[in-house]
Design brief:
By secondary structure, the chain is mainly alpha-helical. Helices cover 67% and strands 4% of the residues. It has a 4-stranded mixed beta sheet, with helices on one face. Helix 4 links the parallel strand 1 and strand 2.
């Protein structure tokens, strides 16, 4: 009981120290508010209001039909330009897409020939370029088929393909990017806060004061774990309720308390990494460099940014040992698909086991560093 009391009071000391560190407080507020909102609103994975121009050298009903079929919200109203201006306007990045319809285009279509339409794409807008080029191809193909009288034949296909999009019917990217921003920020803040707490003690000279007191290194480390974990857990809950569900209007299908239980479980692993890096680094700049080497690859390869199936097989096996991968998995299952504990308990178990092992290793490392400081 005395050990638990020591952990509790040391944790309150950590909270008071954090309360006086306005830089870290500002980072926490920014990370779970404006950063989440701006990432959800600023990063779009679908085509929206793309600028397009048409160099219509045919000026036929078919070419005008193709131009009129480029409708909002996918495209802005097409602008008519001369063919001689294509290179200059593309160099100026005035348009993302420029469609060049050649002379005698309609006449060649009627004659059964296969004329070509040139689509110039500004691929520096990579996301819009890939999606928009496919949309333009489909729109032009549909208008040509309708003009040549083959639209009805295409509708008489013996196969009726019906696509149903589950969990995100409108394919709205904020539904995905906002949750992923919170998940990635949990790892980032847990490592930074826990590591900064260790380095702060060393830089201020208070670590020596703690070590000469009747306190064990385990109590000192666990106080940092629960104090910093509590701050992040509260920030995650507020961000999920106020920013994601309130400001962004993202529906949460599953149980928020179950998700928060998973967050708390994962924080034991993430804060353990922070304590471990804090014992290795000698200053905050060194901690920042170590953070980039450890946390950034862990976030990028956890399945939140790219699917695990698109990775090499050996890398998938390696990432299955990382709790961050299972954290992303059960977070998506709970918040998007409404999964319960009966579905996500294997991921919870892996996070608990691996996180517990790494927490133990971090405590051993912290004890060695503390013993060396005493000696």
């Amino acid at each position: 009981m005395r050990g638990l009391a020591n952990i509790f009071w040391l944790g309150t000391k950590e909270l008071r120290c954090l309360g006086h560190d306005f830089v870290l407080l500002g980072l926490i507020v920014y990370t779970f508010s404006f950063a989440v909102y701006s990432q959800a609103q600023g990063i779009s994975q679908e085509l929206r209001h793309a600028s397009v121009a048409i160099a219509d050298e045919d000026r036929s009903p078919l070419s005008r039909a193709i131009a009129h079929a480029l409708l909002p919200p996918y495209f802005k109203p097409p602008q008519q330009i001369a063919a001689s201006e294509i290179d200059r306007l593309m160099d100026l990045a005035r348009y993302t897409f420029v469609i060049d319809i050649p002379p005698n285009f309609q006449k060649d279509v009627v004659a059964g020939r296969r004329p070509a339409i040139q689509v110039d794409v500004d691929a520096t807008a990579m996301m819009q370029a890939g999606i928009g080029a496919g949309y333009i191809e489909q729109i032009a193909g549909a208008e040509i088929a309708r003009f040549s009288g083959r639209a009805d034949a295409a509708q008489e296909s013996p196969v009726d393909l019906v696509v149903r999009v589950a969990f995100n019917p409108n394919l709205a990217s904020p539904w995905f990017t906002s949750i992923m921003a919170i998940i990635n920020n949990v790892t980032m803040l847990a490592i930074i806060l826990a590591g900064a707490a260790v380095i702060r003690e060393r830089e201020h000279g208070t670590m020596d004061h703690l070590l000469v007191m009747p306190l064990s290194p385990f109590e000192i480390a666990m106080a940092k774990v629960w104090a910093n974990g509590l701050v992040i857990a509260i920030a995650v809950a507020l961000s999920l309720l106020i920013v994601v569900r309130g400001l962004l209007g993202v529906p949460i299908s599953g149980s928020i308390p179950l998700f928060m239980a998973g967050v708390v479980l994962y924080l034991f692993f993430a804060t353990a990494i922070g304590i471990f890096l804090g014992t290795v680094a000698r200053s905050m700049p060194q901690l920042g460099l170590l953070f980039m080497l450890v946390a950034l690859p862990m976030n990028m390869l956890s399945g939140g940014n790219t699917p695990l199936d698109s990775m090499p097989s050996w890398l998938r096996v390696v990432m299955q040992t990382s709790p961050s991968t299972h954290f992303v998995s059960f977070a998506e299952a709970i918040l998007y698909r409404g999964a319960g504990l009966d579905v996500v308990w294997p991921q919870f178990l892996v996070v608990a086991v691996v996180g517990g092992l790494f927490l133990g290793l971090s405590l051993v490392r912290f004890r060695k560093v503390a013993s060396a400081a005493i000696a």
